[in-house]
């Protein structure tokens, strides 16, 4: 019976699979952040002041100020996006869009911007 040496190949494949599995959540999170930013750019940026602009009575605060407030965590953002919040325009976002916006806000918060 011929001797097979699959040990190194199996170990290499196992290592590659583990690496891909470890990277997958980070890639998914990154994609959600990108999608969340696109939703914000499409629906929210007209009212929220951008960094470096002067805040006027007609403008909503910049996102950096919003995410810097104590207690603004995932649960707070999720609850906020589920409720109407006048005088803001009420946009009916899909659940997956809301989830992506939350990921974007949390990423912004994490980066301290």
- The pLDDT mean sits at 81
Number of strands: 0
Order of helices and strands: HHHH
- Structural class of the secondary elements? mainly alpha
Query: Rough shape?
Result: globular
| Tally of contiguous helical segments | 4
Q: What's the Cα radius of gyration?
A: 21 Å
| Main sheet: strands, sense, barrel | none
Task: Describe what this molecule looks like in 3D.
There is one protein chain. By secondary structure, the protein is mostly helical. It has one domain. About 60% of the residues lie in helices and about 0% in strands. It has helices spanning about 5-45, 65, 75-80, 95-110. Helix 1 (about 5-45) crosses helix 4 (about 95-110) and helix 3 (about 75-80) packs antiparallel against helix 4. The longest helix is centred in the first third of the chain and has 37 residues, at about 5-45. About 10% of the residues are buried.
Task: Please tag this protein with its features.
113 residues, 4 helices, mainly alpha, 0% strand
Produce a short descriptive summary.
By secondary structure, the protein is mainly α. The protein has helices at 7-43, 63-67, 74-82, 95-111.
List the helices and strands and how they pair.
Elements lengths: L6 H37 L19 H5 L6 H9 L12 H17 L2
